[in-house]
Here is the input.
Amino acid sequence: MVKFLKPGKVVLVLSGRFAGKKAVIVKNYDEGTAARPYAHAVVAGIEKYPLKVTKAMSKKKVTKRSRVKPFIKAVNLNHMLPTRYNLDLELKQLVNAEVLKDPTQRKASRKSVKKILEERYRSGKNKWTHRESVTGDAKTSLVYPKKTSPFRTPNPPTVRDVFARRHACAKVIISMSATNTADPLLADSLPCERPIALELPHGPLAAWAAGPDDAVPVVFLHGAGADHRMLGPQAATLHARGRRTVRLDLPGHGRSRPLTARWRVPLAADAVAALLDHLRAPTAVLIGQSIGGNIAQHLQRHHPDRVAGLAAIGSACTTLPITRTQRAALAASAPLLHLWPWASLRRTMVRASAVSDGARAHLDSAFADLGPSGFAAVWAGVARSLEPDHDPTHRTAAACPLLLVLGERDATGDVAASMRRWAERDGVPLHIVPGAGHVANLDRPAEVDALITDWLENVLGPAH
Here is the structure.
């Protein structure tokens, strides 16, 4: 089994006070300890970053604006998202589990970490090239000059953007020892994953696979407007347990662009089937979030022999009837998006979909990457495809094992009501994730990981 969460790995903290901040693993405890009987790691990160400096500033002002405020913390492995970067710093003698217990040692350790990070900053090493936009995603190419820093966080242009900027994962960059030459869209791919590129009639399809080739793959299908990174925490957890995992960018998303046809659920389902053919996988377990769950349902209905199990996270049932009001709302939603200012629409969609700061930062970055025209095109296809194909005789649970997961605070459309009716009709439990929103897998990754892991044990048996 490949161990990718190891000392020196830069990770993104997904929950708690430092959600959205990046840190480096100093020491990990995969088996847990007596005080913390779960897999965790001691990390050191940056809470407050140096401000922008210019050549016109005095030496005193540059020194003042070059300060770093670090943090040290023990973080659950399920509450961090690995990046492709490593940071070469000697911190093992300064940061450990014993230091965290004593407030005096903890304060002294933070001072030592602060000194090391500030020295790295002032030395001008590990120059960093990243992308950034108004609301904090790293999508506009900027190269820091000699006196600026990879730690820098630009000031927010408006008060409204302060919250999003504070927790945006893409803007919080730690000085790296490796050069930035990889594709930015692969930033959150696992070290053990191998990329797959297919050319389909409607455009390219990008995917990432890991695990034993002879096992039944677990295919992750993300929601509308996102990309393969959305289900990264779940893929990492399952791969660490020996499962074969496959993530992909659905057509029209991420690296599966450009899309030369109109986006529809059947088109996306055909792309998933083509990917399974390429992997020589006769069957697969499908885990879909939101529209990804609708795609999984379409595959299960039209290719039942290829679906060994179906897990839906915040996804409406496509075989239940809907009202005329719901039909009218779906028809009107796509045209209205063109009239909605993009910055305001992004903020609204992010806050309506996620609860935690880390999940909101991820969605904001994904939506920004897709852009207003791409998002409108995808949503138009989603609206055309969401009208259920009502079949009163169909029972999903009768055709394959079914797992239904719903965030307690999911207020997206009619998803909550639809999933409750779905669970009642099929006679399966509806697992409510406390405190989670529409993207429960990002808001509460540990809880969702546990549900999926236990369910897969019953569906596929023990992992390799």
Notes: The chain has a mean pLDDT of 81. The first strand starts at residue 9 and ends at 13. The two ends are 10 Å apart (CA to CA). The chain has 14 helices and 15 strands.
